[in-house]
UniProtKB/TrEMBL annotation:
Organism encoding this protein: Roseivirga misakiensis
InterPro entries: CTDL_fold, Sulfatase_Mod_Factor_Kinase, SUMF_dom, SUMF_sf
Single GO MF descriptor: formylglycine-generating oxidase activity
Pfam families: FGE-sulfatase
Residues covered by the Sulfatase-modifying factor enzyme-like domain: 62-497
Signal peptide, first to last residue: none
Taxonomy, superkingdom: Bacteria
Coiled-coil segments on the chain, per record: none
Protein name (Swiss-Prot/TrEMBL): Sulfatase-modifying factor enzyme-like domain-containing protein
Length: 507
């Protein structure tokens, strides 16, 4: 930890911040006091007094870009071909947030699967060593460390939510069909390194929510182990850190009991014990009371999550490029770029297609040898096309994307006009669509006979944007579709979002 190595000392940067905001007296004494009571604030060295933790500049979330919020008109500017009237234009305000620059890729999903069975690398002090059977001299030891071989046929290592491998990997069967030769992608699209940077598909809404939870835990675990010892909550210190009475060095523990072995110079921990330690830490920091303490200290990023429908649509339209100084929009956008065409109207790239989509019946890529043939008959590498005005790539075409919202055709009628979202069927019960609600997990379980009913229920989740298999109509950000939260497709992927804390961003 910046490290657990810096447990006993206060960093020079921390001192600089402390002194720069201290109140000064005519005697030269620096002391921070409350403007409410006049009482002295507590310090790191004192257990007495209220401690108002200073504003801490959290790091920008990895892989994300900042989307400045504001007023916008949501809804479809395209002709309503289906006559659904399920996204009528309305004015709302969306707060600032972060969003992934690109869709989540196969490589990033495989990283997620890997860390369900293996510990992550953390910033540890020099006196703590993780056993490495491949290290120099390991084979010469009296008891050489055994290689760590995770059991990928067993459950994941999560204490509170273990899953099996088949629950977390994408469904390759989304590529199979009795009437196409796309089955070759079932073996290669997710697993082959040649598709590393292609958007992951075959993942359900529920799987994506689990991914976002893991990503939150992974990033915050790293942040915690980069902190000075004194910055961490006392309960965390007592649970997971023990100071060696002989050397004064910090050592890792579970429940206050040191793990691994100490050879007099270093604490040596097996990979299995290190993995158990991390899982215990994750459980600790996810307890609501413990999480609050980390948040109060400014050392905990907000959760990664699916963007809600309003955020996604706002980010896709990116109308910041269409606004005059008087705050009037010059025009709305049918697509995430200027113009009514799917082709680039400007410069040397004039005429190039701006998205990967299906141009017409049977036409996925154009004619071979033509300058406009992009070779993208299936999803392509993320970031290949021009970004929109928020610097977000592939907000139209390539793959459609899951969003958080539960689908209802007339949701706009109940939405708030600030950060609108539909979390569930409140105000428009699934009973209105032929389902009987109950206190069980969901209406599908309550209706096992599966008689004919509407497809709209509390499991129906929205996905946005056109895909490689869709015609241009579906690339308009205002169009919306839905499917069951446990269904996967070769055309649906996702990206994550995160709330923005404060008014500005770290440059």
């Amino acid at each position: 930890m910046k490290n657990l190595v810096g447990f006993i000392k206060v960093g020079s940067l921390g001192l600089l911040i402390m002194f720069s905001v201290s109140a000064c007296s005519i005697f030269g004494k620096k002391q921070r006091v409350s403007s409410t009571t006049g009482a002295a604030y507590g310090t790191r060295k004192s257990n007495l007094g209220f401690k108002p933790y200073d504003d801490r500049r959290l790091p920008n979330p990895p892989g994300m870009v900042y989307v400045q919020g504001g007023r916008t008109v949501l809804g479809s500017f395209e002709e309503d071909l289906y006559g659904s009237r399920d996204n009528i234009e309305r004015t709302v305000t969306v707060n600032s947030f972060w969003m992934d620059e690109t869709e989540i890729t196969n490589s990033q999903w495989r990283e997620y699967v890997f860390y369900q069975y293996n510990p992550q690398v953390l910033d540890l002090p020099k006196n703590i060593e993780i056993e490495n059977p491949n290290s120099k001299g390991a084979a010469d030891l009296a008891e050489p460390p055994e290689p760590f071989l995770p059991d990928y046929t067993g459950p994941t290592h999560s204490i509170s939510s273990p899953k099996m491998m088949e629950d977390i990997i994408p469904d390759d069967n989304v590529w199979t069909s009795s009437f196409s030769f796309n089955d070759v992608y079932a073996e290669n699209y997710y697993s082959n390194p040649g598709y590393n940077d292609y958007p992951v598909v075959g993942v359900s809404w529920r799987q994506v929510v689990d991914f976002a939870k893991w990503r939150t835990d992974n990033v915050n675990l790293s942040l915690i182990f980069e902190m000075d010892f004194e910055d961490l909550p006392l309960a965390f210190q007592e649970e997971f850190i023990v100071i060696n009475e002989t050397t004064g060095d910090p050592e890792l523990a579970i429940g206050g009991q040191i793990i691994g072995d100490n050879n007099g110079e270093k604490q040596v921990i097996s990979v299995e014990d290190f993995d158990d330690f991390q899982q215990e830490v994750v459980e600790f920091i996810n307890d609501p009371l413990n999480k609050r303490e980390f948040i109060e200290r400014g050392i905990y990023l907000p959760q990664f999550r699916l963007p809600n429908e309003a955020e996604w649509e706002y980010a896709a339209k990116a109308t910041i490029g269409t606004v005059y100084l008087d705050e009037n929009e010059e025009y709305g956008r049918i697509y995430p770029w200027d113009g009514r065409s799917t082709r680039n109207p400007f410069g040397k790239r004039r005429g190039k297609q701006l998205a990967n989509f299906k141009r017409g019946r049977g036409d996925y890529a154009g004619i071979a040898g033509n300058t406009n043939n992009d070779g993208s008959s299936i999803p392509e590498k993320v970031g290949q096309r021009e970004p929109n005005d928020f610097n977000l790539f592939n907000m139209a075409g390539n793959v459609s994307e899951w969003v958080f919202d539960t689908y209802r055709p007339l949701s706009f009628g109940e939405f708030d006009d600030l950060n609108p979202v539909r979390k569930d069927g409140t105000g428009d019960s699934e009973e209105n669509y032929g389902w009987q609600s109950s206190q069980v997990a969901d209406s599908i379980s309550y209706n096992p006979q599966l008689e004919y009913r509407s497809l709209v229920n509390d499991r129906s989740k929205v996905y946005k944007g056109g895909s490689w298999k869709d015609v241009a109509y579906w690339m308009a950000p205002g169009t919306r579709r839905f499917t069951d939260m446990d269904r996967a497709s070769s055309t649906i992927g996702f990206r994550c979002a995160m709330i923005s804390i404060g008014d500005d961003i770290k440059k």
